[in-house]
Design brief:
44% of the residues lie in helices and 15% in strands. It has 398 residues and is an alpha/beta fold.
């Protein structure tokens, strides 16, 4: 009888551990390590029956996409994966990202707005939930802005940005740098004017007013603002050193920027000249990528994209697009007003569009190569560049 009692105690103590579910989770960039570790710790406290196992993070989103595509082939996908907004269409096409609609229920109760989910919805189905989001913003070195003699509110239009550029150049400082890495900021210029990447026929049309204005502004970065012909990394270093007045880039760099400078910094909104204008959202989304542990995986996804998403801006420069998480950040925002700039434009969020077909990357690179000619002054004929980019890209599209 004593043996049976001891066995019962053993079962009571150790069966919960034996029944523990292990979720395999993958993500990109090592700078997310601390954030994911925090979320893992908080989740496992509340869910002792689920253990989170991270795969070593990839160096960037492109590597993450490539890894997922390989894992799909060999049937070794993780349970949950965090990857870029831009990669979601290919993840859906290859049946890597699974449909989440049946798990969402009352979206408002989850803190998920239609605007936020519109960027992760394809063919009327939600295939991911926003995790760490970013929008284009303008970083201002307020010491240089003051020295330049600018005594108005920070620019709200591109005309004002170029006006301020001239004042900065007049005090022998570089005025601005358009810190593009692919075509995200270029797309922002077009979408903010109500433009589209491809028309209803699936082709690029850069002859539209929205795209003509986009190419014109890219040219004005050189012709009016005298943007220095240097690499992005050099421009960021120059901004950190206090030699660059304005840096146009992702809001995700805010935390790192604050740690790297010794001058007063103020963020400004990316100008939106059109009431119908939108901004492509950058950053990462949470995807369900396996049917193996769906219930546990969705519990984790809804946790990290829910109220716990409040840790995202506190550990990184990314913003939360979860309404309940942002409600919990009121004190944080009050002490750190720069972190409110990107969230104030959540209503403008839209999906990051991509060129269709198998030549997506080539077409994207073609757009960037032509835009770079304007940014560096290799050409100042923006109409000619727009036409050439149009012709070259449409040759690559289906």
């Amino acid at each position: 009888m004593k043996k049976y009692c001891l066995f019962g105690i053993f079962v009571a103590l150790f069966c919960p551990l034996m029944a523990q579910t292990e979720l395999v989770v993958s993500y990109s960039y090592t700078w997310f390590n601390d954030l994911h570790a925090k979320l893992k710790s908080e989740f496992e406290k509340q869910n002792p029956d689920i253990k989170i196992k991270f795969i070593a993070p990839t160096q960037n989103y492109e590597e993450q996409s490539a890894r997922l595509l390989r894992e799909k082939i060999i049937n070794k996908l993780p349970d949950v994966s965090f990857n870029s907004y831009a990669s979601l269409p290919i993840m859906v096409e290859k049946k890597i990202a699974l449909d989440l609609d049946s798990y969402l229920g009352d979206k408002k109760a989850l803190g998920l707005s239609d605007t936020a989910l519109s960027s992760t919805t394809l063919e009327n189905k939600v295939y991911a939930i926003p995790f760490a989001s970013s929008l284009p913003v303008v970083y201002y070195n307020m010491d240089l802005i003051k020295k330049s003699g600018w005594n108005k509110a920070l620019p709200s239009t591109w005309e004002e940005i170029f006006e301020l550029s001239k004042k900065l150049n007049a005090i022998n400082k570089d005025s601005l740098f358009f810190a593009e890495t692919d075509t995200w900021l270029i797309l922002a210029l077009a979408l903010q004017r109500g433009g589209v990447l491809v028309n209803e026929k699936g082709k690029a049309d850069f002859s539209t007013p929205a795209w003509q204005d986009t190419f014109k502004i890219l040219s004005q970065m050189h012709t009016e603002a005298k943007m220095p012909p240097i690499k992005r990394s050099e421009a960021i270093a120059s901004f950190y050193a206090g030699n660059l007045g304005m840096l146009i880039q992702t809001s995700a760099a805010l935390t790192l920027t604050e740690k790297s400078i010794n001058f007063p910094l103020q963020l400004g909104k990316f100008p939106i000249p059109n009431k119908e204008g939108k901004l492509p959202v950058g950053g990462s989304v949470a995807m369900l990528t396996s049917n193996k542990n769906k219930e546990a995986a969705m519990k984790y996804i809804l946790f990290v994209t829910g109220e716990a998403n409040k840790f995202v801006p506190q550990y990184t420069g990314y913003m939360s697009s979860n309404t309940k998480a942002n409600e919990q950040l009121k004190d944080f925002f009050a002490k750190n007003p720069n972190y409110t700039v990107a969230p104030s434009q959540i209503h403008l969020m839209t999906a990051w569009p991509a060129f269709p077909g198998n030549n997506t990357i080539k077409a994207t690179n073609t757009l960037w190569i032509n835009a770079e000619k304007l940014l560096t002054g290799a050409s100042i004929d923006y109409k000619d560049i727009a036409q050439k980019a149009n012709e070259d890209i449409n040759k690559l599209l289906p």
